[in-house]
Design brief:
- The N terminus is likely disordered.
- An eight-stranded parallel beta barrel has the order 10-11-12-13-14-15-16-17, surrounded by four helices. A four-stranded antiparallel β-sheet has the order 1-2-6-5, with no helix packed on it. It has a three-stranded antiparallel β-sheet with strand order 4-7-9, with no helix packed on it.
- The radius of gyration is 33 Å and the shape is elongated.
- Helix 7 links the parallel strand 13 and strand 14.
- It is an alpha/beta fold.
- Helix content is 30%, strand content 18%.
- It has two domains: 93 residues, Sandwich (Immunoglobulin-like); 345 residues, TIM Barrel (Alpha-Beta Barrel).
Length: 492
C-alpha cells in the first residue's frame, strides 16, 4: 500500500470510529410528568367535616415544590386559609370555618404546584361542606319537651351568683332571707334584673341556691327561704326564660359541705331536700329544670378529679337518688328535665368516663342532661398575659370534642353551667377591668357560645355581666356590656 492510500485509510477509520462513538451517546432523560392529585383530606365532596380549624391535605403522585411567592395565589371561599406548606408529596394548610353547613372551596391555580423538575401541575379545586348540626326531636317519646331541645332553647344564659347561694357561719342560721342574699356583696334581687337579661337576648338564668343554713335537724327547709327561692324563680319564669334551680354550696371546698363524694353519705337527707323542692315546684312547666348538685368533691376536697377514682361511685349514688326523689313527686316532675354533673363539675376523661347516667324511673332517658363547668384554659389571664389566643381557643375545641364523645353522642345534651375568666389568686376580668381586657373576655365568651351552638350545648356566664349595685333597678347598668353583646350576637 502506498503512503497516500495508507493515510487515507487511517483517516477513514478514524472518522468511522468517531461517528460510532458519537452515535453511542445515551439520549437525555425526559422530564417527569406534571404532578397529579391522588387523594385529599377531607375527601372531595365530603359533607361531614367538623367546623372550626380544619386540617387540609392534598396529596400528589410525586414530590412537589412551591415557592413562597405562590402561596398567596391559593384561594378559598367559605373559609380563611393559613399555614400553607408542602412536605414531600403533600400540600398542607389550615382552613378555618366556624359555620355549620358551609360550602368550602379551595382553589390551587395552574403552576403553583411543580415537581422537582419544575414541571407545573394543572389547576385543582377541593370542595367540601362543614357538618350541619341535626337538631334533636323537640318532643320526647312521652310527648313532652326533651332535655336536648330545652338546652337549645335556654342558651345563652347567666348565673345569678353570690346571691341565694351565699352562706357563712358568721351570718347565722334560719334568719331572714335577705341577710344571706346580700351577704356576699349583691343587692336583693328584683324582677327588673330578669327583664334586662330578657331584653338583652338571654334565654336562661341559673339560680344557684345553698340550703343547709335553712334546714333543721330533720332536714325540713324554712318556709320563708323556700318562699323567697320561689319568688326569684318566678322572676325568671315570668319573663318567658328558662330557669335552672340547684343545690349549690351544700357541696364544695368548705367544712360545712354535706353533699360529699365520700362514704359518709347523707342520701336520705339529700332525698328529703329534693322531695321538698320538687313538691313546691311540681306544677311548673318545662321552663324550670332541676340541677341535682353543684361541684361535688370528696372528703379531701380535691378538685378536677379525686386521687382515688373509687370516690366517683358516690357522685353516681347522689345522681341516682336525685332523679329518683324528683320523679317520685309526680305531676310535671314525671317528665321534668333534670341535670346531673360530673365530680367537681370537671371534664377530665376520668370523671366523664366515671359518671353513670341514672336510669330514669319513668323509663325516658331523653329528660336527662349533663353539666360541667369550664374556666378553661385555667389561669389564661396570667399565662397569656390577659390575651385570648388561638391556643386558648384550641383548649375549648378539645373540651367539646371530649364532651361529644362521652355524652352528646350518647344522647345526653351538655350544659356549661359556669364559665368566665376566673384564674389563680381570684384574678378575673370584671367591671373594674379596662376596655381592652373586657374585649378579651368577650372573645372567650364568643368562642364558648359558638362551640355551644355547634354542639347543641348551653352555657351560663358566671355572675359578672351585671355585678353588685349595678343589679339594682334604681342603679342598673351592664357591668360588662361588651361581653354580654359578644354572647348574644352569636345567636342572632
Amino acid at each position: 500500500m502506498d503512503t497516500i492510500k495508507f493515510f487515507a485509510f487511517i483517516l477513514l477509520a478514524a472518522l468511522t470510529l468517531g461517528f460510532s462513538a458519537c452515535g453511542s451517546d445515551e439520549p437525555d432523560e425526559p422530564k417527569q410528568a406534571a404532578p397529579a392529585v391522588v387523594s385529599t383530606s377531607p375527601e372531595q365532596g365530603s359533607t361531614t367535616v367538623e367546623p372550626g380549624a380544619i386540617s387540609v391535605t392534598i396529596t400528589y403522585d410525586k414530590t412537589i415544590t412551591m415557592t413562597a411567592s405562590d402561596i398567596s395565589k391559593i384561594q378559598a371561599t367559605g373559609a380563611t386559609i393559613s399555614n400553607v406548606r408542602t412536605m414531600k408529596t403533600d400540600l398542607m394548610l389550615t382552613a378555618t370555618c366556624a359555620e355549620e353547613g358551609q360550602a368550602v372551596t379551595i382553589t390551587i391555580p395552574a403552576g403553583v404546584i411543580k415537581n422537582t423538575d419544575g414541571v407545573a401541575a394543572a389547576a385543582y379545586s377541593l370542595n367540601f361542606t362543614t357538618k350541619k348540626i341535626e337538631l334533636p326531636n323537640p318532643v320526647a317519646p312521652d310527648g313532652h319537651e326533651s332535655a336536648a331541645q330545652a338546652v337549645l332553647n335556654m342558651t345563652p344564659g347567666w348565673n345569678l351568683g353570690n346571691t341565694l347561694d351565699s352562706y357563712g357561719a358568721w351570718i347565722g342560721d334560719h334568719l331572714e332571707p335577705y341577710r344571706y342574699e346580700t351577704a356576699w356583696g349583691q343587692p336583693v334581687t328584683d324582677a327588673h334584673l330578669m327583664q334586662a337579661f330578657k331584653e338583652k337576648g338571654f334565654k336562661g338564668i341559673r339560680v344557684p341556691v345553698t340550703w343547709f343554713q335553712h334546714m333543721d335537724d330533720q332536714g325540713n327547709v324554712d318556709e320563708a327561704w323556700m318562699n323567697r327561692v320561689q319568688e326569684v324563680v318566678d322572676y325568671v319564669i315570668n319573663q318567658g326564660m328558662y330557669c335552672i334551680l340547684n343545690v349549690h354550696h351544700d357541696t364544695g371546698a368548705h367544712n360545712a359541705a354535706w353533699v360529699v363524694a365520700s362514704p359518709t353519705l347523707q342520701l336520705d337527707r339529700y332525698a328529703k331536700l329534693w322531695t321538698q323542692i320538687a313538691t313546691r315546684f311540681q306544677n311548673y312547666d318545662q321552663h324550670l329544670l332541676f340541677e341535682g348538685y353543684n361541684e361535688m368533691l370528696n372528703a379531701a376536697q380535691q378538685w378536677n378529679q379525686p386521687s382515688n377514682l373509687s370516690d366517683l361511685v358516690y357522685v353516681n349514688q347522689h345522681a341516682a337518688k336525685f332523679v329518683e326523689a324528683v320523679r317520685a313527686t309526680g305531676g310535671n316532675n314525671t317528665y321534668r328535665n333534670l341535670i346531673v354533673s360530673t365530680y367537681a363539675a370537671a371534664h377530665s376523661i376520668a370523671v366523664m368516663n366515671g359518671l353513670t347516667i341514672p336510669t330514669d324511673p319513668c323509663g325516658n332517658q331523653s329528660h336527662i342532661a349533663v353539666e360541667v363547668h369550664s374556666y378553661d384554659p385555667w389561669d389564661w389571664l396570667h399565662v397569656y398575659n390577659m390575651t385570648w389566643t388561638s391556643q386558648c381557643r384550641e383548649v375549648l375545641n378539645s373540651m367539646f370534642k371530649d364532651l361529644e364523645t362521652y355524652f352528646i353522642s350518647k344522647g345526653y345534651p351538655v350544659i356549661i353551667g359556669e364559665y368566665a375568666t376566673n384564674g389563680a389568686g381570684e384574678i378575673t376580668i370584671d367591671k373594674n377591668s379596662t376596655t381592652a381586657q373586657k374585649a378579651e373576655a368577650g372573645k372567650q365568651a364568643g368562642d364558648m357560645n359558638r362551640l355551644c351552638k355547634r354542639y347543641g350545648a348551653a352555657s351560663f356566664y358566671w355572675m359578672l355581666l351585671v355585678d353588685g349595685a349595678d343589679r339594682s333597678e334604681a342603679t342598673f347598668k351592664w357591668s360588662m356590656e361588651q361581653v354580654a353583646d359578644s354572647i348574644v350576637n352569636v345567636y342572632k
